[in-house]
Design brief:
This protein has about 475 residues and is an all-alpha fold. The chain contains 20 helices and no strands. The protein has 2 domains: about 5-240, no CATH class; about 260-480, Hypothetical protein af1432. It comes from Streptomyces xanthochromogenes.
Length: about 475
């Protein structure tokens, strides 16, 4: 049985971030010890938030309740606490729900602790902003008879929701940079833009809850706001199910290719991973990263249309057999052209064997005519082919594969994509988990590149030299590796 992971199993920077956030959350909540806290309201709101998070953890309800447990699904409850309570009390509301929330990946306890700490800090900052701008007075103060002062109540509420969003965005980027070791220049990219609109909606829902809470109908009336919130959660659940169906479709196609072509077992997944690494290093938007990964995973799906005897042939291919294999990009494009969610991945599947100098196939496109996603996948495909063991040759070291890619940059490969892969490898290394000659359950040792020596004229692309192609089939093959 695998042991659950803990704080010691995450990078040192992430440990420091988690411990610091926990200490900060404790400092935010500490003033409650002075008294004057409306404990009844704190308990009701904290219990309501915990109740919203609990179904996914409940063994009976987890598979039957159609409510996704997604970050931010129940933020209106927390923002209502921000508008209704003093800052230290608002910081406490998120803690019980965050500590019992559903977490998919290990280390679960650390992730829950981090989530509780960042929500507590964000709630404290939002409540402090709301109080500083006179938000409680605009909502009617402590009297249920006083009517909210609209539209002036919207200003402190909007500012509080914005501060809540900014704090969460800052902390989310921090944990991405430390735990997942994202580049600092990209860790926060796009987080605020993706979060701002949802937090504005959550802020309005939270303000509605706060207004109803202070009305003469009391806290039960605030529960009516949960109905549209749960409807929105249901809609999001449908999106999650559709996404899961997409993943299942891709897995089925990849498994079919791996079964048919035993020489490339695991190759598709690794090309998908390398493609995503390159795209992330180039600063592509988060939404494109998944599409680029799909393109890498499915780049060889057209091999399903190639006769098995040709794919598994041990000897050299005849010109006729090579011509048949060179049809696999077109076969693949035909197979996936009706799958709408793949987007630009369809073009990458069709054109990933095009070359920058126009000598590739199937259409002989050159330079900027080749789609950007196809240029990414071409580099990832060549790199994994060179660094994977095949029955007819051993894997090359990562450093040798990088040198070959750099040699062919400008003729066969886009230099930007090659440089992006080099930067990603220097940051993360490369770990080959499955090779064609190993059982699928066997994990190969990490293949991490040593420090790259300075490039010399001899290491650059030589005019007239052959294109890189380490593969047995018409994948990128270096001219000096023929018959290797």
């Amino acid at each position: 049985m695998a042991q659950s992971r803990g704080l010691r199993d995450i990078p040192a920077g992430a440990r420091l971030a988690v411990v610091g956030a926990a200490a900060g959350a404790g400092a935010c909540a500490l003033p409650v010890l002075r008294g004057g806290v409306p404990w009844a309201a704190v308990a009701l709101l904290a219990g309501l938030y915990a109740l919203c998070e609990w179904p996914a953890r409940c063994p009976i309800l987890a598979g039957r309740v159609s409510v996704p447990i997604a970050s931010g699904s129940f933020f209106p409850v927390l923002l209502a606490a921000v508008f209704l309570l003093p800052p230290p009390a608002a910081a406490l509301v998120a803690v019980p729900g965050a500590l019992i929330a559903y977490v998919e990946d290990e280390p679960r306890r650390v992730r829950r602790s981090w989530r509780a700490a960042e929500l507590a800090i964000a709630a404290f900052a939002g409540a402090g902003t709301h109080q500083l701008l006179g938000g409680r007075a605009a909502l009617g103060g402590g009297s249920s008879a006083a009517a909210p002062d609209f539209p002036y109540a919207l200003v402190p509420a909007g500012a509080a929701a914005l501060v809540f969003c900014l704090v969460l965005t800052a902390l989310d980027g921090l944990i991405l940079a430390t735990a997942e070791r994202r580049p600092v220049r990209t860790a926060w990219r796009g987080l605020l833009l993706r979060s701002l609109a949802p937090h504005c909606v959550h802020g309005l829902a939270g303000l509605m809850m706060a207004v109803l809470w202070r009305s003469r109908f009391g806290p039960p009336a605030a529960l009516f706001v949960l109905l549209p919130m749960y409807i929105s959660c249901w809609v999001f659940a449908q999106y999650q199910r559709e996404r899961a169906a997409h993943q299942a479709t891709i897995r089925a196609l990849v498994q079919a290719v791996d079964i048919k072509d035993r020489y490339t077992r695991g190759h598709s997944e690794r090309v998908g991973r390398a493609s995503e690494m390159i795209a992330r290093e180039l600063g592509m938007e988060e939404g494109r990263l998944e599409v680029i990964r799909f393109a890498g995973i499915l780049h060889d799906v057209g091999k399903l249309g190639v006769p098995t005897r040709v794919l598994r042939k041990d000897g050299p291919l005849t010109p006729e057999e090579r011509a048949v294999i060179e049809l696999h990009p077109e076969y693949g494009h035909e197979m996936v052209r009706g799958i709408g969610f793949l987007g630009e991945a369809r073009g990458a599947i069709l054109h990933h064997h095009e070359r920058l100098d126009g000598s590739g196939y199937p259409y002989g496109l050159a330079g900027g005519q080749i789609p950007e996603a196809a240029r990414v996948v071409a580099v990832a495909d060549a790199f994994d082919a060179m660094t994977s063991t095949r029955s007819y040759r051993r894997a090359r070291p990562v450093a040798a594969a990088v040198t070959e890619l750099e040699r062919c940059a400008g003729a066969q490969f886009d230099p930007r994509m090659v440089e992006g892969l080099v930067r990603a490898l220097s940051r993360y290394g490369w770990h080959v988990e499955v090779t064609a000659d190993e059982p699928a359950t066997t994990a190969a040792r990490g293949n991490v590149p040593p420090p790259r020596p300075p490039r010399t004229p001899e290491a650059g692309r030589r005019p007239g030299s052959g294109p890189a192609d380490p593969g047995r089939h018409p994948e990128p093959r270096p001219s000096n590796a023929q018959g290797a």
